[in-house]
Amino acid sequence: MEVRNAGSSSEGTEDSDFSAEHTDSSESDAHAVRNTRLTRSSLRLSRNSQDIKESADHDESPPRTPTGNAPSSESDIDMSSPNVSHDESLAKELSLKESGLAHRPKRRRFHESYNFNMKCPTPGCNSLGHLTGKHERHFSISGCPLYHNLSADECKVKASSRDKHVEERTLSQRQDENRHSARQQAQTERQLRYKEKVTEMRRKRNSVPLKEQKDKYTEHRQTHGSSREPLLENITSDYDLELFRKAQARVLDDLEKLRLQGQVTEGGNMIKAIVFGRYELDTWYHSPYPEEYARLGRLYMCEFCLKYMKSQTILRRHMAKCVWKHPPGDEIYRKGVISVFEVDGKKNKIYCQNLCLLAKLFLDHKTLYYDVEPFLFYVMTEADNTGCHLVGYFSKEKNSFLNYNVSCILTMPQYMRQGYGKMLIDFSYLLSKVEEKVGSPERPLSDLGLISYRSYWKEVLLRYLHNFQGKEISIKEISQETAVNPVDIVSTLQSLQMLKYWKGKHLILKRQDLIDDWKTKEAKRGSNKTIDSTALKWSPPNGT
Fold first, then answer.
1. For this structure, is 477 an active site residue?
2. Where is the composition biased (Basic and acidic residues) (predicted)?
3. Can you give the pTM of this predicted structure?
């Protein structure tokens, strides 16, 4: 009897598949006698298996397949052997078909893990190649060779060069380990030569770009804009640039492995950038925009009504018809080009929802998006001849039992590090003073928010101590004067090392060095980015 391993030959699999199909075509003719044949063949199979067992007892080695492997089970026996009748072959094939063992599962090819509906967002790119040189396709800017001013073949050449360098370095490290067993050891000759080589490569770099190179950089930037990576040649040494490229490739290779494992998905409904007025802003966090908009990767927004759109054409048509030039609500503050509008979440629900969705793109801890009715929004703008442009905003509850004067605060990225964040914080405490309350921001604060608030509290305390002429001072008096919560005052004093405990009493140390530094910074900053309390035209709302 011939024995064959079903998984060792593709021809055997094809034969079994064909036999199964042939059996399917003759099932209608043999339906009446199927049960009789199955019963008869089962009896013969049991006898035949006993004969095989007896012959195996006489032969110590099990029967082998043409590839040299022993059959793994009774299903591995080829029923087309002349020693087995046609009824037994038919019965075996029917039993295999009913149990689902006659068909081998389809093998998944590597490229099936790619989603071919996705396309690289780089203009003119066909999604072929990868910056790492190890993959055939890409669907993101980070892996796009064209964006990095390379071709797919160049990426493959660089990848092979990197692999060769890694092998050489690993081999040399093993040789060094064999030579030196001690942990603390001097540098080897090879390491010293390599160090000298790197120093020489860094010294050769031309620190002042030539006119031709500057013209080349300018032309590249004007031609491609932000759709291509800037030319990096001569910005640093060739050695450091190659280190940067290696780090890029290594990170992208790790991301590609995670994607193939299913831990990272392509186009996972993450908005990468927004076009907002004359700015294009890269986003920081996920925001729950509707799926049809989120999967685009880039949104176009009206900077006045905050409506979001899918394309530049739709935005251009909208701007031609949009009558908004400032936020809705009441203008309660104006000084120069800076204005603040009070917007009720109940009266202007759509605008406030769009504002929250926009803020979530740049805030990690924000959870409020659609339930905006219990909140008031104070939107700061900067005016020019085209309208009032959004600078930032903060929201607060209409009725806060814990006296929170800020629920969420945001400065738009294009206005960060210009003093607008402290203006928003100062304005929130100005409202608390008018309400004759002590305020504090709602926790948890974002990383940038915590930095801004600590800096603001520090300035408030130093200004107060600078103007204070008495001998005794209390935390309560500072809180009533500045509207800052006593807990925030104590934590700030502790961080400045100005709060001491001596002879059973807490003492506030007036550190003149900190006050002098604050006065110097205040003189340089000027009075352009400060809130003028006389410009406020507002009265506390009556239980809304």
1. no
2. 19-32, 50-62, 159-180, 190-201, 211-227
3. 0.55
